[in-house]
Write a structure and sequence with these properties.
This protein is mainly α and 370 residues long. Helix content is 61%, strand content 0%. It starts with a helix and ends with a helix. The structure holds zinc ion. This is Squalene cyclase C-terminal domain-containing protein. InterPro entries: Terpenoid_cyclase/PrenylTrfase.
Length: 370
């Protein structure tokens, strides 16, 4: 009852504000984009809720979708958005728990990572499970860094000699292999920025859940200076540019707790510069997914809508929302792409309730290699 009443009051307030703007013209002290942003964000969220309500999509991406609801409910400056994401996320977390009550025997690294990420998000949404936690603690102990990250971040920086999984037969070959050990097909090597970004994501999920996959988040993040200088986009392939950009944004997420804390640009000057330089490229390149990530990471460095690039990003996102509330290509058959691009656009548009200026894991900052 209280929730419904709050929504009614807020909706009435929003309508009254719109009327005020309409009558006050350009001299209005109120900010019309704020209401457009708020409505766009809620339409985007409704699209993601639709995806999360679909059985098959939730089965495949539930752990990630729960993190979306947890993250927004923890970091949004809008109390209504915090409430919406928490209540919907809580109901979905109950469903996810019912489907994932134990670690399957022989679960591999990817499966354990997904269970850790999902279990952390479900806890965040008010649905803990101590029995699964104990199972995951045991599973994490037997997984080596090489199995989880494909290299050992305690001993070496992200390498460039990890082959991709064979496209013909799905076999994983040893480091340095240029042909598949199973079928002999030619293999491509992964670039080190993609390897690093994946390691950041997996080790962060473990760290916030209180576990380790052999190596810690600090072990992974310590290699930041070895990733400099970032390849300039003019000379990088499209895929290397994307992997570099995601490595930069995910390094920032690991440091700001995915939107919990404000960072100072002088702490990470090269990352700040990178984001500042490339936000315009994302707009001109119509890359919604990267634009959203550039916008929210730059907000954590203190940029506001007063910044022309951030304002241009907001205008772009408001102008390119699909009729169904999503962002990105509505014809894309991959449901992950559909909801994830929508999620990054929401994160780019929304406002954050920063909990002060600090890094999420100070020990990781101290360990940065020269
Ligand atoms: Zn093969």
């Amino acid at each position: 009852m209280v929730g419904r009443l709050t929504v009614a009051i807020l909706s009435t307030a929003a309508a009254a504000l719109l009327l005020l703007w309409a009558s006050a013209g350009t001299r209005s002290p109120l900010n019309p984009p704020d209401v457009r942003v708020s409505l766009a964000v809620k339409r985007g969220l409704a699209f993601i809720e639709g995806v999360a309500s679909d059985g098959k999509s939730f089965e495949e991406n539930g752990f990630d979708l729960l993190w979306c609801f947890c993250s927004i409910s923890q970091t949004s400056a809008d109390p209504e958005l915090r409430d919406l994401t928490w209540r919907f996320g809580h109901e979905r977390a109950l469903r996810w728990r019912a489907d994932h009550s134990r670690v399957p025997p022989g679960a591999g690294a990817d499966e354990v990572y997904q269970l850790v990420a999902g279990s952390h998000a479900a806890e965040c949404l008010g649905v803990p499970d101590e029995s699964l936690r104990r199972g995951l603690e045991q599973a994490a102990l037997r997984i080596t860094p090489e199995e989880m990250f494909r290299f050992d971040p305690r001993k070496e920086p992200p390498p460039s000699d990890i082959p991709k999984v064979c496209r013909k037969c799905g076999t994983r070959s040893a480091r340095g292999s240029l042909t598949c050990r199973q079928c002999g097909a030619e293999l491509e090597l992964r670039d080190r920025y993609g390897v690093w970004c994946d390691a950041i994501i997996a080790s962060y999920s473990a760290e916030v859940y209180g576990l380790r996959f052999g190596a810690s988040l600090a072990d992974v993040l310590q290699w930041l200076p070895r990733m400099h200088p970032y390849p300039p986009p003019g000379r990088a392939s499209r895929i290397l540019y994307e992997h570099t950009a995601y490595a930069v944004t995910h390094f920032v997420y690991a440091m700001n707790g995915y939107g919990l804390y404000r960072l100072r640009s002088e702490w990470f000057p090269r990352e700040y510069e990178y984001l500042r330089t490339h936000i315009r490229n994302a707009i001109s390149g119509r890359d919604t997914e990267l634009l959203g990530e550039y916008m929210d990471t730059l907000k954590s460095f203190g940029l506001t809508e007063a910044d022309p690039d951030l304002a241009a990003g907001t205008r772009y996102l408001l102008a390119h929302q699909n009729p169904d509330g999503s962002w990105g290509d509505p014809a894309d058959p991959e449901i992950y792409d559909r909801y994830h691009t929508t999620w990054t656009a929401i994160d780019g548009l929304r406002s954050y309730a920063w909990r002060g200026e600090r890094v999420m894991f100070p020990e990781a900052m101290v360990r940065l290699q020269p």
